[in-house]
Methyltransferase domain-containing protein (Letharia lupina), 318 residues
Amino acid sequence: MASSSDSSLFDGGADFDWIKYTTHRPAYSSSFYDRIWTYHQSHSNHWSLAHDVGTGPGNVAEVLGARFDKVIASDPSGFHTAVARRRLAASNVTVEQCRAEDLVTLVGPDGHGKADLVTLAECIPLMDAERAFSGFAELLRPGGTLAVWFYGKPIFVGEGQERSQQIYDRIAGKAFSRIFPIKGTIWQQAFTVMASWLDNIGFPSEDWTDVERTKWNHDKPLCFLPEEYFDFEVKHENSVTADEKVEERVDRDFWAKEHCGVDWVEGFIDAQFPWKSTDDEIGAQLKPMYKELEEAMGGQGSKTKIAWPVALVLATRK
């Protein structure tokens, strides 16, 4: 996830381990992508151009490249775009450093009304959604698809799951403590999006139609941190209209990762907060907390199942 206001916040250093990054994150399943393809095909049969916004290292853009003739991947972080360019150099993906809110300007008038799909994976909380979505509406051709999704913190499934979840929250809080206190407009905006399960994002009827919202494991919070870490009240805001389709599921098999040990959890924290490893004091404080988590998971060498809370929003350009 890269911020529009501070693209360096989630940047790793030159030695950042991208294999660890991809290994210790949820994998977007083929059935998940099929859901997006099916929705798109029901409104349009164009597969020429896709935009992947907030591309990070280009994982989603790579998948889009196998489906669309051309893909433009963008991210405000020069660190991320450099990695994406290296990874996707031999593909049909063009990588641009650009804020989501400025993409329509970067593309220019000649690119308006040409895109078939715009995707935003794990980047929506830290952008000006109203301004960005207005630009996406200009980029998409009629019948084009906007797909936005976001996943939250791991859900521990199995032995010691409640205690494991509580310890994990303390670990995440400690890893995030480098930027405490969490206050200010950008953070309040970000955690409002998460607390609202993306319901705060509205789709003006003059631009969008057939909005579908799907929430997996909605019984758990989408926020990465408990509200006790915030210096503001987090509210659930609702911009969902009566004509939108909303589906909520509790499915602990969705995107599930089996056989995760405490080393996997540590890898996830490192990938989620790449600047944590640069702080030796924080790292030292985390070591006994990981040991406590391992005990809660069943002891040394124990493995557990990890599931995810996920929100997906699909909309069609009128």
